[in-house]
Amino acid sequence: MTPRIGGPTLPQKRELVTAIPGPKSVELMARRRAAVSAGVGGTLPVFAAAAGGGVVVDIDGNSFIDLGAGIAVTNIGNASPHVVQAVQEQVAAFTHTCFTVTPYESYVQVCEELNRLTPGDHEKRSALFNSGAEAIENSIKIARSYTRRQKIVVFEHAYHGRTNLTMSLTAKNMPYKHNFGPFAGDVYRVPMSYPLRDGGRSGLEAAKAAISHIDKECGADTVAAILIEPIQGEGGFIVPADGFLPALLEYARQNGIVFIADEIQTGFARTGAWFACEHEGIVPDLMTTAKGIAGGLPLSAVTGRAEIMDAVHAGGLGGTYGGNPLACVAALAAIRTMEEMNAVSMYKNIEAIMWSRLEAMQRQHPTIAEIRGRGGMIAIEFVKSGSDEPDADRCSKVAKYCHEHGVLILTAGTYNNVIRFLPPASISDALLNDALDVLNQALQATA
Ligand code: PLZ
Questions:
Q1: Pairwise CA distance, residues 263 & 233, whole Å
Q2: Burial environment of residue 170 by CB neighbours within 10 A (0 to 12, 13 to 18, 19 or more)
Q3: How many angstroms is it from 386 CA to the middle of ligand 1?
Q4: Whose CA is nearest to atom 9 of ligand 1?
Q5: pLDDT of 228-240, one tens digit each?
């Protein structure tokens, strides 16, 4: 029988009991096609029944190794016990009051936790929202309100969401922006540090190039915010060269520009630190978080310097559901779990295993141009043999092979040629190694 209860007690194994997709998923896929907009994307051809630890079980009883965690969301494992219990208790107490109508303690507690955990010991404030895109939108509102300036600087390969403003901040046309314009104004895109593809420029050289664009095309004194993912997510886990982020931050400071770190994908232990900014020793003015914050419930936040966060007029920030009580208690339980399990060190362990296994694969397959990332946020980028030309076809074949053999992996990258790994911290070493064995077979089968 297909399990319906997830969590860490779900058997931790890769097991296929039908072809992929199985008959129940095939049937449901037909209903999906008839009922759900064709515009909504889909990675796996199977439907979930339960998930926990490092596996997702589908409605036909197939057990997949989870190297996606949603998209970097269930970092502590799916249906994590503290989260389940907290949500069950909260749902029976009250489901909703709207924080801006009748406030509740858990919202305040989440803000206290965010203020405590994010980099920097200055005075901070937070505000809660529903999705990553909504947090980004609000970080821009706050930065504009504080600086009384309008221009926003973003980077090549950036991803910040799918609403009108965040689409405008996102770099990639297909599938995110195509046919969806007109886009928001006063958004300026400047070059990123992408060590594999910018001729090995140093972080300082790359920052100089970005700053020159800002100076020439915007004028520093008209810029409200510089917005950047410290490691780019959808763009392909691009880790900027050392020194790039600190140089940009210093430039922002000198010019009264609010520096916003988008840690929506990198946050909450994912990179082997609570937040990726810590690897660069930088303290952003504002930080956006979401995804891993609440164990799978929809919650996002903007956290930052009290004087910036408090610059907005009373009533200027809000929303019906932002900081919903179920999501808030889930976040408190998720944060407690991350501290108890030491998710930071678990992700460092995952990094060590993945890195050595992937290096061995790269020696066999030099078309893996680069292994990059940190902690449990690691990627490989494919090129065509003997060139630096992106190989999207190989990448999608590898992903398909893995899916058909019981491993859930995701792709990414401006050129669609990156496989990214985002396992939950709770994955066992044995399961992770089994998934990497399948990846190795996929590389051989598609060579
Ligand atoms: N900023 C850095 O990674 C979401 C997008 C999936 P939302 N990334 C996953 C998809 O195809 O839509 C993301 C992110 C960074 C912002 C966002 C947006 O977060 O919660 O999806 O709105």
A1: 9
A2: buried
A3: 34
A4: 71
A5: 999 999 999 999 9
Rounded Cα gap, residues 331 and 67, in angstroms:
22
Contact call for residues 341 and 295 (beta carbons, < 8 A): no
Domains and CATH numbers, the chain: 23-79+342-446 (3.90.1150.10), 83-341 (3.40.640.10)
Rounded distance from Cα 19 to ligand 1 centre (Å): 31
Helices (H) and strands (E) in the chain, counts: 14, 15
pLDDT the model gives residue 403: 97
Residue 376 CA, ligand 1 centroid: distance in Å: 17
For a substitution probing ligand 1, which of 291, 321, 377, 414 has the most ligand atoms within 8 Å of its CB?
291
- Classify 402 as helix, strand or coil: helix
pLDDT tens, residue by residue, 205-223: 999 999 999 999 999 999 9
Q: Look up residue 106 and give its two tokens.
A: 């858990």
- The answer to whether the predicted template modeling score (pTM) of the entire model surpasses 0.90 is yes
What's the 287 CA to ligand 1 centre distance in angstroms?
A: 15
- Ligand 1 neighbours by CB, cut-off 6 Å: 71, 131-133, 136, 159-162, 229, 233-234, 262, 264-265, 290
